[in-house]
Amino acid sequence: MNADTLEHDMIYYFGEGPVDKELLGGKGANLGRMRSIGLPVPPGFTITTEICNHYTAHNDYPDGFTDAVAANMAKMEEELGKSFGSTGNPLLVSVRSGAAISMPGMMDSVLNIGLNDDSVEGLARQTENERFAWDSYRRLIQMFGDVVLGVEHARFEEALSEVKDSVGAKNDTDLKTGDLKDLVIRFKSIISDEGKTFPQDPWQQLRMSIDAVFMSWNNERAIRYREANDIPDDMGTAVNVQAMVFGNTGKNSGTGVGFTRNPATGENKLYGEYLLDAQGEDVVAGIRTPHPIEDLADQIPEAYEKLQDISDILEEEYRDMQDFEFTVQEGKLWMLQTRTGKRTADAAVKIAVDMADEGIIDRETAVMRIDPESLSQLLHKRIDPDAERTVIATGLNASPGAASGHIVFDPDEAERLVKEQDEKVILVRPETSPEDIHGLVSAEGIVTSRGGMTSHAAVVARGMGKPCITGCKDAAIDLSNQAVWFKDREYGTGDLITIDGATGEIMDGQVAMKDPQLSGEFESLLEWAEEFRTIGVRTNADTPEDAARARSFGAEGIGLCRTEHMFMAEDRMPIMQDMITAESLEERQEALDKLLPMQQNDFADIFKVMEGYPVIIRLLDPPLHEFLPAREDLLGEVVERSLEGRDLTRLGRMLKKVKNLEEANPMLGFRGCRLGIIHPEIFAMQVRAIIRAAATVKKETGNKVKPYIMIPLVSMEEELQHVEDMVRSVATEEISQVDVDLDYKIGTMIELPRACVIADRIARIADFFSFGTNDLTQTTFGFSRDDSEGKFFDGYKREGVMRKNPFQTLDRDGVGTLVKMAVDKARSTKEDMSLGICGEHGGDPASIEFVIGAGLDYVSCSPYRVPIARLAAAQAAIRQP
Ligand code: PEP
Ligand code: MG
Questions:
Q1: Do 709 and 747 touch, CB atoms closer than 8 A?
Q2: CATH code, 326
């Protein structure tokens, strides 16, 4: 290939090229852009990424390349009145890499190119600063030796330390001219020891440095970085050749890095640090402690003032917070780089809202600028980023937030320690079930070695806003010895650990944390999001407290109330168990009669909190065995009690029932509407409780109350018809006994593939649908939602078979197609049927975008995800074509 086949010029002089990051790299494009708006940028030019790709492919440059470099060097020489390689007034240049996507520290740069044994003297004369000239020269040899000639960096550092020791110098800046001359000799001999030579010809230095930067695109760390960050290999790096400016010419010079606003807090104030009498790499290397940027106002006031002006100009130009590098040479400020600055979640929100208020961006841009997922950091406690920590294990980041506590393996013990000793505990279990709920309620956080993102522990913890790590394969739990091995470290009951549910990390001991703070800017951002949002956001809440929290985050109703969680309280569980183990209908009814007023109170409180917003209450869904103790535990108790000669009647019954309820695949078993068809009395009790609660609240508050009764796990229209008939007859009977006019609806979960396929027929019976995408994902893939994530998902990802966990982000091709099919079929039967989603995907931004496209009316998610869903829904609406 020769130069004619390139699409662009090979080289662009700063300020004369297009603003094109792909072609010029981020650094080159921004240097050019800064120069073209009149900011002080030392002249230079960018060799394009096209040339990098050519060089990589052919190990050579296109025809005419050398001439193009020479022509651009000549332009620089003319602009500056200096000449490259001259002994009188030498031009020195830097050669730096710069890809389209920043790859910090991955590739190489060489500074001070153009110095040799002659021009170093010229530089000394011209600057009247011999020490500076020799310091620059020894730096060039050191960097060139390391980056271009491949001599080990440490060998130069050793020589530097030796010279410093021999003259008693503490810092590099304490070295005198003679010491630096000595270093130049030592460095050269280090290079020749390796059989290499430091070239005296500046043009050779330049060419070899450009080669080295292009080659560094394919060094091992760069390749690994690209792999880890999904950066394509053929993107290539650009090379920037730029006239050197010097921050190391004395006390009126310096170099630093800055941000136009504080990247940690978002405060609108210049932020950064600098070193006097130093070159850029000294700041990065951390050899000396830099000063905060405000100090520059005293030390070089004119430069500080200029920097403040430039900070405003940069924000005006880029309309975002910038992260820049600068050098001051003899009081004159030079800009060496700018790019959009990385920031914390807090800062991101504050900066976006402040910039909109300042008129720099509009509200739509502010709303688009925040990663919805990052909001969860603001809603929960988090690990102090500056805190020391030892990570001992990692699992799935099932529910965000951070917590410290003493390890407890037993839910009863967790409850006792919290109640009686006011301890903070972390519940560590192989997995959890509804039976363990009191332990989950008591614990600060939960770790399970099995289960995934939709396991019981994950779903419940997210609902409660507690940190939870599931599927932790690094944890080997030995319940009988009350011990857990986190990799090779053993922990027992009472040992202190800290968990970070946002990262899935388990840490030794207590680690410092930060409390959540919801700022005014956070509120503003969510308020602005409302202007764009087109889909409703409801919550999955089972208690009045969760419902109230979700309301405060802006939920517009309850999309799923899982009634099973209401039976878990200490005083209700035994009644529930009596109901399940009842040997006659009368006995069962007796237990149900006791449960009814309890459920009714819960529903009434939830209706009150929801102030007329729709409340979807799902009738009992889980298999009944989940409410009974595990068989092994019961057997242990039987042995204990019989040894003590105590009555075994209740235990015996329970054991019989547990055995009787055992199923090979309980998640595919006797649950959902199947339960309601075989034991209608359970559903009937719940319907009575719902209607009575709604009537009472309506009477008491005068509010509209909107009960929506939802039937789970329907796959046949006959199932729904059967349950619907029963629900309607109980509801009619109840309504006839209360003196209020009550409107209620009956709908169904769509969570089985067959239900999607016959959705048009199911829609004839149902008033509404709610997609249960947890079960729908489980049954579409045939992946167990309790086991797959811990067993083989990691392996699937490693082998490249799976990119995203489908329990977390809706699988558009399979599950999504079923959802879309069901939506279309439902609407073909009932055009305005209410359709929502209440699986965990309802709080996932990518899934929200999909369901908006699929035509759903609302999403429903756990309370703490409501703000995330509101923002994600607004963004998706803005992005919709
Ligand atoms: C679902 O299956 O998506 C759902 C919301 O119900 P659950 O998670 O309670 O099975
Ligand atoms: Mg379900």
A1: yes
A2: 3.30.470.20
The DSSP bridge partners found for residue 469 are 397, 447
| 741 lies in some domain | yes
CA of 775, closest atom in ligand 1:
2
Our count of domains for the chain comes to 5
Distances (CA, A) of 708 to 560, 603, 612, 743, 744: 10, 12, 12, 9, 6
Taking only the tens place, the pLDDT of each residue in 577-621 is 999 999 999 999 999 999 999 999 999 999 999 999 999 999 999
- The enclosing domain of 808 has a CATH number of 3.20.20.60
* Separation CA 771–CA 476 (nearest Å): 36
Query: Domain check: are 400 and 505 in the same one?
Result: yes
What radius of gyration, in Å, describes the C-alpha atoms of the chain? 34
| pLDDT (mean) for 532-543 | 96
- Nearest residue (by CA) to ligand 1, atom 10, is 775
Residues 175, 76, single domain; the answer is yes
Percent of the chain with pLDDT over 70: 98
List the beta strands (DSSP E) in 215-253. Answer: 237-243
Whether this prediction's pTM lies above 0.90 is answered by no
Tell me the per-residue pLDDT of 664-683, one tens digit each, with 9 for 90 and over.
898 899 999 999 999 999 99
Q: Which active-site residues does the annotation give?
A: 456, 838
Residue 609 shares a structural domain with residue 635: no
392 in Cβ contact with 508 (< 8 Å): yes
C-alpha–C-alpha distance, residues 95 and 241, integer Å:
5
Q: Is the CB of 453 under 6 A from ligand 1?
A: no
Give the range of the structural domain holding residue 605, as residue numbers without chain letter.
532-618+673-879
CA distance 318 to 219: 32
Q: In 3-state terms, the chain is what percent helix, strand and coil (to 5)?
A: 50, 15, 30
pLDDT at 286 over 70: no
Q: What burial letters (b/e) apply to 802-829, b meaning 16+ CB within 10 Å?
A: beebbbbbbbbeebbebbbbbbebbbee
Residues paired with 241 in a beta bridge: 45, 95
Count of helices and strands (H, E) across the chain: 35, 33
Please tell me the distance between residue 732's alpha carbon and the centre of ligand 2 in angstroms: 27
Residues 63 and 189 in one domain: yes
Distance 772 CA to ligand 2 centre (A): 5
Identify the pLDDT of residue 151.
Answer: 94
Distance CA 495, CA 501 (A): 19
**Ligand 1 atom nearest 773 alpha carbon:** 3
Q: Whose CA is nearest to atom 9 of ligand 1?
A: 562
User: In this predicted model, which residue has the larger pLDDT, 85 or 866?
Assistant: 866
The answer to whether residue 636 sits within a structural domain is yes
More confident residue, 133 or 463: 133
Domain at 446, CATH number: 3.50.30.10
Do 569 and 682 belong to one domain? yes
| Residue 571 pLDDT exceeds 60 | yes
**Do 319 and 230 sit in the same domain of this protein?**
no
Which residue's CA is minimally distant from atom 6 of ligand 1? 772
Could you tell me if 551 and 506 lie in one domain?
no
pLDDT band at 219 (very low <50, low <70, confident <90, very high): confident
β strands within 479-529, DSSP E: 483-486, 489-492, 496-500, 505-508, 513-514
Minimum-distance ligand to the CA of 459? Answer: 1
Ligand 1 mean position, distance from CA 631 (Å): 26
Is residue 350, in this structure, part of any structural domain at all? no
Neighbours of 602 (CB within 10 A): 22
| Nearest alpha-carbon partner for 771 in 836, 693, 866 | 836
Taking only the tens place, the pLDDT of each residue in 81-126 is 999 988 888 999 999 999 998 776 667 789 999 999 999 999 999 8
Verify that 554 and 636 share a domain, yes or no: no
What CATH number has the domain bearing residue 108? 3.30.1490.20
